[in-house]
Write a structure and sequence with these properties.
The protein is mostly helical. It contains six helices and no strands. It folds into two domains: about 1-35 and about 80-130, no CATH class; about 45-75. Helix 1 (about 1-20) packs across helix 5 (about 100-110) and helix 5 runs antiparallel to helix 6.
């Protein structure tokens, strides 16, 4: 129970951070994609660097979680569907101004666009699950 509460507060902190950094604001997303303001791109670059350092530390510690259980980190296959999915994801992000993390922050802020984007994400996930060919 305590762990679940910790997860909840971690998620709330993450959403708050996304909101405060401007990552849930359409104008900032637009400015990032047009190169007018690279604040969010630098923020994402920092997150990638922190994540890479964290992965390096995990590997150095033998890929164990806090309970000593082994963490499996498997590479995903790279194929033409990866490229197509990336293009669709990027187009959706550019049009809606939200990715899966920021859309939840938008919902928390009460933005109607967030509800529309979230509905589109659910529909896209359903279509993929229903019609995707399993390799």
């Amino acid at each position: 129970m305590i762990r679940k509460i910790g997860y909840l507060f971690t998620g709330m902190f993450f959403g708050f951070s996304l909101s405060r950094s401007g990552a849930s604001h359409y104008d900032y997303i637009y400015q990032m994609f047009t190169g007018e303001n690279l604040k969010l791109a630098l923020l994402m670059g920092t997150a990638i660097i922190v994540g890479a350092i964290g992965m390096t530390v995990l590997k150095a510690l033998g890929n164990k979680d806090i309970n000593g259980q082994e963490i499996q980190i498997n590479r995903k296959p790279f194929n033409h569907n990866t490229i197509i999915g990336g293009i669709i994801f990027g187009m959706g992000w550019a049009v809606s101004g939200a990715c899966p993390g920021t859309v939840l922050a938008q919902l928390g802020e009460g933005k109607i666009l967030g509800l529309v984007t979230f509905s589109g994400m659910l529909l896209g996930t359903y279509i993929y699950a229903r019609f995707a060919h399993k390799d």
